[in-house]
């Protein structure tokens, strides 16, 4: 009765070839094809009966090695550039690519193992703090600015909005509070400015549909002036203010 021998399991024929190359300390760029082929075939003979699809992959590689072995005995072929072609070149390229992917899989495996040891703390910040928005400091916004003409235009547009209100129909139904975000209005003005390039302050205010919209637009203009996103100019006193993007 023979002594049972457990052979190592390889993921495929290229994995087996790399094992033989490392075991024999062979330069992968100068493979002794005769020696490697003999060891490869010897291993296949010792393999236990396995799935036909698995065995077929190893047999295809065995046929490839034998083909390379035969071509090594023939006169070397010359390519179009006059250089001798090495029958082992394609096999070496496959082995190098497989070796690279194999080591990459080891790296990913190690990173996954390290990540499994990491524990992240759940965000416990109260909603009140996350939703907090700092109040707008009007004194800070309008310091060092001459806003007298800006104020006059603002009041004129507000009067126009009051004139648009129907004194009879406005009393019907329930008036709901209109929510207008200062940050959203600032984004709207920036998009408007990018499209128009230059426009007048009065034109911008007249596009608003309510008093609340006008007030928030006014504040947004002040904030954008402060941050330097837009600049204003006025040719003469009491003229409309020109707004341009920087």
How would you sum up this structure, described in words?
The protein is mainly α and 246 residues long. It has 2 domains: 13-116, no CATH class; 136-163 and 180-245, Structural maintenance of chromosome 1. Chain E (Arc Repressor Mutant, subunit A), CATH 1.10.10.580. The protein is built from 10 helices and 3 strands, in the order H-H-H-H-H-H-H-H-E-H-H-E-E. The protein has helices at residues 13-23, 33-46, 52-73, 89-116, 127-130, 138-142, 148-163, 182-196, 201-206, 211-227; strands at 198-200, 230-233, 242-245. A 3-stranded antiparallel β-sheet has the order 1-3-2. Helix 7 (148-163) runs antiparallel to helix 10 (211-227). The longest helix has 28 residues, at 89-116. It starts with 12 loop residues before the first helix and ends with a strand. 11% of the residues are buried. Residues 1-7 have low confidence and may be disordered.
Set down the secondary structure blueprint.
Blueprint (H helix, E strand, L loop, with lengths): L12 H11 L9 H14 L5 H22 L15 H28 L10 H4 L7 H5 L5 H16 L18 H15 L1 E3 H6 L4 H17 L2 E4 L8 E4 L1
Antiparallel strand pairs: 1-3, 2-3
Task: Summarize this structure briefly.
The protein is 56% helix and 4% strand. By secondary structure, the chain is mostly helical.
- Give the SSE string: HHHHHHHHEHHEE
| Sequence stretches where pLDDT stays below 50 over 5 or more residues | 1-7
List the domain count as a whole number: 2
- Report the average pLDDT across residues: 76
Radius of gyration: 40 Å
What gap, in angstroms, lies between the N and C termini? 92 Å
Shape estimate: elongated
Strand neighbour order, sheet with most strands: 1-3-2
| Assembly context of the chains | single chain
Total of helices: 10
> What structural class do the secondary elements suggest?
mainly alpha
Strand content: under 5%
β-strand number: 3
Main β-sheet, in a few words? 3 strands, antiparallel
Helix percent reads 55-70%
């Amino acid at each position: 009765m023979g002594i049972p021998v457990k052979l190592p399991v390889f993921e495929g024929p290229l994995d087996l070839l790399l094992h033989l190359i490392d075991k024999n300390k062979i330069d992968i760029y100068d493979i002794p094809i005769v020696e490697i082929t003999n060891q490869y075939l010897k291993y296949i003979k010792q393999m236990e009966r396995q799935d036909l699809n698995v065995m077929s992959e190893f047999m295809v590689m065995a046929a490839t090695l034998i083909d390379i072995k035969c071509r090594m005995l023939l006169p070397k072929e010359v390519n179009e550039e006059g250089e001798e072609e090495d029958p082992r070149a394609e096999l070496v390229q496959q082995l190098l690519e497989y070796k690279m992917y194999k080591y990459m899989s080891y790296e990913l495996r190690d990173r996954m193992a390290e990540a499994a040891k990491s524990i992240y703390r759940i965000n416990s910040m109260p909603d009140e703090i996350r939703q907090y928005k700092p109040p707008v400091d009007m004194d800070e916004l309008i310091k060092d600015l001459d806003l007298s003409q800006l104020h006059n235009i603002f009041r004129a547009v507000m009067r126009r909005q009051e004139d648009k209100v129907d004194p009879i129909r406005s009393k019907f139904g329930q008036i709901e509070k209109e929510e207008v975000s200062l940050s959203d209005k600032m984004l709207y003005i920036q998009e408007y400015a990018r499209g128009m390039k230059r426009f007048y302050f009065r034109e911008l205010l007249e596009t608003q549909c309510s008093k609340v919209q006008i007030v928030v637009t006014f504040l947004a203009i002040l904030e954008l002036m402060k941050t330097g996103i837009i600049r204003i100019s006025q040719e003469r006193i009491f003229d409309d203010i020109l707004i341009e993007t920087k």
